[in-house]
Write a sequence for this structure.
């Protein structure tokens, strides 16, 4: 017999159990990070305002699209290096690599993303899409907890999607660095 003790309503309760070995069983479906060959999750993002939903499944259907994720609009690395690199390389990426669209995603609201894009002259070059609740970021399993930036944000990454399938993926090893996810590394793998 096995004696089981537990606290119930502030009292210790003892119970006897037959000779049964305790079994620890945990079941949790954890998302797995997106990988090359996966279908891009279809999630609603927002462009310019909450009224303008853009579904990622529709966005990439029949196209070659670069999507890059950043921890936050107006943050130093994103504003000085990441977004400007894609804005300045947009014409070359589109002409030489056959890219139809370049999209920047961040866990921000659509108004912030719109203002950030205007500040960097992204119009016609890079679309800035907001992932306000982090649904797309979580579906890709590229979220990172950054309390100084407000909590759950996106790791820094880039991916190439062709007709809905991920064909290239670059996730910064520490989630926030500026190396493999930069515009000049697209198509180098």
């Amino acid at each position: 017999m096995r004696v089981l003790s537990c606290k119930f309503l502030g009292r210790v309760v003892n119970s006897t159990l037959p000779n049964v070995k305790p079994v620890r069983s945990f079941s949790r479906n954890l998302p797995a990070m997106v990988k090359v060959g996966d279908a891009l999750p279809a999630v609603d993002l927002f462009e310019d305002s909450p009224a303008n939903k853009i579904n990622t499944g529709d966005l990439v259907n029949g196209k070659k699209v670069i999507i890059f994720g950043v921890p936050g609009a107006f943050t130093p690395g994103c504003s000085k290096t990441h977004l400007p690199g894609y804005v300045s390389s947009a014409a070359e990426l589109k002409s030489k690599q056959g890219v139809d669209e370049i999209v920047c995603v961040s866990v921000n609201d659509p108004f912030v993303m719109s203002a950030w894009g205007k500040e960097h002259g992204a119009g016609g070059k890079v679309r800035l899409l907001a992932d306000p609740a982090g649904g797309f970021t979580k579906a890709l399993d590229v979220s990172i907890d950054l309390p100084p930036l407000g909590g759950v944000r996106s790791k820094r990454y880039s991916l190439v999607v062709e007709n809905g399938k991920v064909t290239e993926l670059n996730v910064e090893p520490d989630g926030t660095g500026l190396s493999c996810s930069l515009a000049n590394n697209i198509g180098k793998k």
